[in-house]
Write a structure and sequence with these properties.
Elements lengths: L1 E3 L8 E6 L4 H19 L2 E8 L7 H13 L4 E7 L3 H13 L3 E5 L4 H10 L6
Parallel strand pairs: 2-3, 3-4, 4-5
Antiparallel strand pairs: 1-2
C-alpha cells in the first residue's frame, strides 16, 4: 500500500510504501499526486519512503512506476528514496547519473533530512 506523507513540503510529492504495492496504488494515488505537483510547480520533487521489500511490488506496480518516470522525464528535479536497503541505496545513486534531475538515497532515520533536501536541494546541517 502507498500512502501520502502528510508532513511533506508543498512542492514535494512524498509517499510511504508498506506491504504489497500494486498498480492501483500508482494509478489512484501516486500518478494523480505527481501530475498535480508537476502542473503546479512545473517540476517534480519526489520522495519515496520504502518500508517494504521490493518483492512486494507487483509487476503492474513496476510498470506504472516506469511509466511515471517516462511521462515526467523532463520534469524531474529531485527524487529521494528513503530506505535502509543498501542495494536500493546504491541503485538510486547510480541511477542519478542516467536521469535528468538529482536522485539521492537516504537511510530511514534521515526522513526529515530527505524531505528538506527534496524541498530545496540542501541537507539539514548536523
Amino acid at each position: 500500500m502507498i500512502t501520502i506523507i502528510p508532513e511533506a513540503p508543498d512542492n514535494v510529492a512524498a509517499f510511504s510504501a508498506t506491504g504489497e504495492i500494486t498498480k492501483e496504488d500508482f494509478e489512484n494515488l501516486v500518478i494523480p499526486k505527481v501530475k498535480e505537483k508537476v502542473d503546479q510547480y512545473n517540476e517534480l520533487n519526489y520522495l519515496l519512503y520504502l518500508d517494504t521489500d521490493l518483492d512486494n511490488f507487483t509487476m503492474g506496480a513496476w510498470l506504472q512506476d516506469a511509466l511515471l518516470g517516462l511521462k515526467n522525464l523532463a520534469n524531474w528535479n529531485r527524487a529521494a528514496i528513503v530506505t535502509d536497503k543498501e542495494g536500493v541505496q546504491k541503485f538510486t545513486d547510480i541511477f542519478s547519473v542516467l536521469m535528468p534531475g538529482e536522485f539521492k538515497s537516504f537511510p530511514k532515520e534521515n526522513l526529515y533530512n530527505a524531505l528538506y533536501w527534496c524541498k530545496n536541494g540542501n541537507e539539514v546541517e548536523a
